[in-house]
Amino acid sequence: MAVGRLANVNYHPIEGFQLGTTEAGIKTSGRKDLVVMLAQAGSSIAGVFTTNAFCAAPVQLCKRHLLEDSPLALVINTGNANAGTGLVGDADAFTCCQELAKGLSLNSSQVLPFSTGVIGEKLPIEKIVSNLPHAIKKLDVNGWQDAALGILTTDTRTKGASVQIEHLGQTISLTGISKGSGMIRPNMATMLAFVATDVRCSPTLTQDLLDQAVEQSFNRITVDGDMSTNDSCMLIATGASSLCLDDDSELISKFSKALTELMQQLAHAIVRDGEGATKFISVEVEGGANTQECLQVAYAIAHSPLTKTAMFASDPNWGRILCAVGYSGVPNLDVNTLTIHLGDCLLVDQGGCAASYTESAGQEVMDQEEIIIRVDLKRGDIKQTVWTTDLSYDYVKINADYRS
Question: Which among 154, 190, 197, 278 is annotated as catalytic?
Fold first, then answer.
């Protein structure tokens, strides 16, 4: 189940970047589950990764290779996370890099590995190694749709976005795919995301732009509050365009805006496809004294099982939202001045139920598939938004049966 209709994505090819996808039978036979990506020489690659202390072997190796070399190739498998696998997992992640490097005439340190799936099971390295040549043969600039399929786990649909911007009479393309459905929480989520662009950009600026975009997209979504061991988000700038970001502040501004919007599309697609999701919920907190307190309130609401189950039931039980705001931990919170809205309906004012509120008005909003919860703290002018889902019976079923 997913919220909203599946968008038809027109994937703009990125000059200097190819993708190849094949079937390796890692967990399920007959499905695409192994992806190879290759950027041209001179490309800049940046990454943001999970902050989970038990980060997976491929995450650790990715970080190391980004420091040691200038990577150009990526290898992604689904069906197995290669996390919680100790030294054996480390060796398997390195073997993936080593074998792909041989097939592409690169150094092993120029390959970045990614895995997603079940935690604690040994990676079926033989299946991956034997099928890497098939993925390499399929490398193509138009390989985005197959790659989008090849990185999915419990997702019910692919997630992609592609945009173009104009500057000085030239066109810059940005195209990306992501995966994620459950175990979604900021910093980051159980997600993978790969975005490529043909603009030229130094490695340092590439990393800065990625950090900024992630903070306003993938680090603003949550489905269930669980943080994965494997999440990674990568930005690849091939430099195939004659336009260079580094010396053009106007272009940096344009590009940063486009990148953030594209990543928000990918992040929203993850929430819309949240495990068992029937609602897409925006939690907007404004009037904050700082970003931190806005996010404290937003996540208190977004992570509240009582609020999320009320959303699933379309029950305007506004007391659950009020309760979450109250325990969010914002110091010296004045509950008599803040307001809470459900859509356009004022729920809470002057410390209690708004005089204008009616159950029928609240019900009308709750019956909708997309819902906005808005809290005005009346403490400042900072605003932050978090996107989340409801919590349904199907979420429990999906995760209870995850390994079967």
Answer: 190
Its CATH architecture, for the domain 17-272, is 4-Layer Sandwich (3.60)
Q: Where are the domains of the chain?
A: 17-272, 280-400
Question: Are residues 190 and 51 in contact, defined by beta-carbon separation less than 8 angstroms?
Answer: no
For residue 244, what is the DSSP state? B
**Tokens, residue 395:** 């979420």
Whole-angstrom distance, CA of residue 378 vs CA of residue 286? 8
In the sheet with 345-349, reading across from the earlier edge strand, the strands are 352-353, 345-349, 339-342, 370-376, 280-288, 382-389
Q: Are strands 111-118 and 339-342 parallel, antiparallel or unpaired?
A: unpaired
β partners of residue 45:
236
Nearest to 21, CA basis, from 6, 43, 37: 37
pLDDT tens per residue, the chain (404 residues)?
Answer: 678 777 789 999 999 999 999 999 998 888 999 999 999 999 999 999 988 888 899 999 999 999 999 999 999 999 999 999 999 999 999 999 999 999 999 999 999 999 998 889 999 999 999 999 999 999 999 999 999 999 998 788 999 999 999 999 999 999 999 998 654 454 434 589 999 999 999 999 999 999 999 999 998 998 766 567 888 999 999 999 999 999 899 999 999 999 999 999 999 999 998 777 899 999 999 999 999 999 999 999 999 999 999 999 999 999 999 999 999 999 999 999 999 999 999 999 999 999 999 999 999 999 999 999 999 999 999 999 999 999 888 877 877 765 65
Burial 104-134 (b: 16+ CB within 10 A, else e): bebbbbbbbbbbbbbbebebbbebbbebbbe
What are the tokens at 345?
Answer: 């309906």
**Is position 190 annotated as part of the catalytic site?**
yes
Alpha-carbon distances of 353 from 2, 146, 304, 350, 375, rounded to whole Å: 33, 51, 20, 8, 14
Does the 280-400 domain belong in CATH 3.40.47.10?
A: no
